[in-house]
Write a structure and sequence with these properties.
The protein is of the alpha+beta class and 231 residues long. It is 13% helix and 29% strand. It has helices at residues 3-14, 209-217, 222-230; strands spanning 31-32, 38-41, 47-52, 55-58, 71-73, 81-82, 109-111, 114-120, 125-127, 131-133, 137-141, 147-148, 162-167, 174-182, 195-203.
């Protein structure tokens, strides 16, 4: 039996907000919130990097690294990352993001003066041990056809289609998720072969009560919790 879910039963039965700090698997419906990236500027008002928070990066100078001035701040969209749920790309058009532009995972952002957004055709799943399966990761930009970004890992410690995920297994606590890929050669963006990366950080949100109930029902623990509460 999954030890984390046993601890969830304890939370509901006894009101103790603790979960095991061990290798942890995310459940469908879990939400990864996205902490906004904070842009950093020099004394003359020139952008020099992202001081903290989430970002998208593009190795535009081809040195096989993401330097601070190649990063773009990201912020949460309408949902954040919902585990096990596929999403459609949001705003993608020429010019900067405008009022009314939306996207599910992260808010539309500017890349080379045009609007981009991220999505996934396959619900993201995984754990701290195996990483998160991001093989369905998609990127939309400037109104061109959506680009598949599920492969092309680069940089030491990264694998194709896998996001490196760090979390202590406790709902409400912070996580980091880093993903590396390359634009496919000859893709519609016109920048095939270029290395890119995403860094997300935020918290793994505490599931709402109905979500807890569904998880416990799958283990046959709902009756146990109810009996414990009535005793």
């Amino acid at each position: 039996m999954n030890r984390m879910l046993v601890n969830i039963a304890c939370v509901l039965a006894f009101g103790t907000p603790t979960l095991a700090t061990q290798a942890a698997t995310l459940a469908n419906g879990n939400v990864l919130t996205i902490t906004s990236g904070v842009a950093e500027y020099d004394g003359d008002g020139n952008f020099i990097g992202v001081a903290s928070g989430s970002w998208f990066g593009c190795d535009c100078n081809g040195n096989n690294a993401l330097t601070p001035n190649e990063l773009t701040p990201l912020s949460q969209g309408t949902t954040g990352i919902v585990i096990g749920v596929a999403t459609l790309p949001g705003a993608s058009h020429a010019g900067e993001p405008v009022a009314g532009d939306t996207n599910a995972i992260d808010a539309p952002y500017s890349f080379f003066g045009n609007t981009a957004s991220d999505a996934t055709s396959i619900g993201i799943t995984g754990s701290t041990a195996a990483g998160l399966d991001m093989s369905g990761w998609k990127w939309a930009w400037a109104g061109v056809p959506v680009v598949n970004m599920g492969s092309g890992a680069w940089e030491t410690g990264f694998s194709d289609g896998i996001g490196n995920f760090v979390w202590d297994g406790i709902y409400g606590h912070a996580y980091t998720l880093d993903y590396r890929a390359r634009f496919p050669e000859g893709d519609s963006s016109g920048i095939g072969g270029v290395a890119v990366g995403w860094h997300f950080e935020g918290v793994v949100a505490v599931p709402e009560a109905p979500t807890y109930a569904m998880m416990l029902a799958g283990l046959g623990l709902v009756g146990l919790v109810v009996r414990r509460r009535r005793s």
